[in-house]
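Q: What residues go here?
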């Protein structure tokens, strides 16, 4: 099947060809026909499966055949600024040969500039819920002409506490509209939301809670005090062209980046303390290859859609197994290959157990040849290590009980 089979209008088909799209991904094959028919869609699909095009392309097709309006006719709600910007970039490239106007609306950017653009008229708004609600309350925009609304990464928006804002936004839209909801996971809370706002949705399920098979996953057991040294050696010795390194805290992100820079590497950093301009600059340097390593907290775990990331490295093991899936999904986009390394200390074993339980398989454990794993723990860190290990043993016991209940 090819994109020609969707019988898109010439301007959209021209954009598809300009982007080099030839064979639709599974989520596009399932979702595009339903969206073209005007049906609601409830989709389980992770970033990197092609879901953004799966809802943008057919929605634009419907809008080209509809009635123009100065107010937004399509609204996409996304959990983070970064994802909103990336969706807007994708939308702009697909709308390049049409008259459709696209605007990204998010916090950390000038609300006055956004207001002026909204008042001049836009067709498609991609927004974070809080900022869009702010514009609605200031009467900078009306949504009474909205025909299509998309809730992208709904589970992430749930985690971030956006659901009340989303409900308020949806209540400002006509009841007779098309609603598309996409989520990497489908907990009961998201299903409840779908029952409330979707009408007889078509169910699309792609890549649910599983990383692409093309990702080569490896665990590197290492004492906690040697983690940063092992990371540096891995980056030096292995064929790493573009690496996304995840840490648990903002402090760790800064410390890791400083260490890698001291070792002569070009590194960008991104975490919650950064202003939007700083985040965008870090993203652009990473995307362009000026800084081939990006150290980030979970602010980048979702919605970071950059082609060519060869390695995802978990400097810190995520506490939630599904966060691991989302993190490593930044590599091996669609059909590409990728590598995911996770540095594992003894106190991380319970979290690794949960990850392997979710994956349904064990992850290979490997060591780095020539690395000295026997450097003793500094005296100042010994007592802290004992406390952490005791907490880890308690967590492992809890994990064993939970697994016994779910068998």
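A:
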């Amino acid at each position: 099947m090819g994109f020609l089979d969707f019988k898109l209008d010439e301007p959209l088909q021209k954009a598809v060809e300009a982007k080099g799209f030839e064979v639709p991904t599974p989520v596009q094959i399932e979702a595009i026909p339903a969206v073209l028919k005007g049906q609601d869609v409830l989709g389980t699909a992770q970033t990197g499966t092609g879901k953004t095009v799966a809802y943008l392309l057919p929605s634009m097709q419907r809008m080209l055949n509809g009635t123009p309006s100065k107010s937004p006719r399509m609204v996409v709600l996304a959990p983070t600024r970064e994802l909103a910007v990336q969706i807007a970039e994708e939308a702009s490239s697909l709308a390049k040969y049409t008259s459709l106007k696209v605007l990204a609306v998010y916090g950390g950017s000038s609300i006055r500039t956004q207001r002026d653009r909204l008042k001049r008229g836009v067709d498609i708004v991609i927004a974070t819920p809080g900022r869009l609600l702010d514009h609605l309350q200031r009467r900078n925009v009306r949504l009474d002409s909205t025909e299509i609304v998309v809730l992208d990464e709904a589970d992430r928006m749930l985690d971030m506490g956006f659901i009340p804002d989303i409900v308020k936004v949806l209540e400002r839209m006509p009841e007779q509209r098309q609603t598309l909801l996409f989520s990497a996971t489908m907990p009961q809370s998201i299903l409840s939301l779908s029952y409330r706002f979707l009408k007889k949705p078509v169910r699309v399920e792609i890549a649910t809670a599983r990383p692409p098979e093309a990702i080569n996953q490896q665990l590197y057991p290492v004492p906690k005090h040697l983690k940063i040294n092992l990371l540096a050696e891995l980056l030096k010795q292995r064929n790493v062209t573009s690496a996304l390194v995840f840490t648990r805290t903002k402090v760790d992100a800064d410390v890791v980046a400083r260490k890698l820079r001291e070792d002569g590497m070009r590194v960008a950093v991104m975490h919650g303390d950064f202003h939007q301009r700083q985040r965008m600059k870090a993203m652009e340097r990473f995307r362009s290859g000026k800084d081939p390593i990006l150290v980030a907290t979970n602010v980048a775990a979702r919605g970071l859609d950059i082609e060519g990331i060869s390695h995802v490295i978990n400097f810190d093991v995520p506490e939630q197994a599904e966060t691991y899936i989302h993190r490593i999904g930044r590599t091996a986009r669609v059909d590409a290959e990728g590598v995911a390394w996770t540095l594992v200390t003894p106190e991380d074993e319970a979290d690794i157990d949960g990850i392997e339980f979710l994956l349904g398989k064990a992850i290979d454990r490997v060591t780095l040849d020539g690395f000295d794993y026997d450097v003793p723990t500094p005296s100042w860190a010994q007592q802290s290590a004992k406390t952490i290990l005791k907490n880890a043993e308690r967590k492992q016991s809890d994990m064993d009980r939970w697994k016994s209940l779910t068998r």
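A: Context that may help when evaluating the design: The longest strand covers residues 215-221. Residues 379-406 form the longest helix (28 residues).
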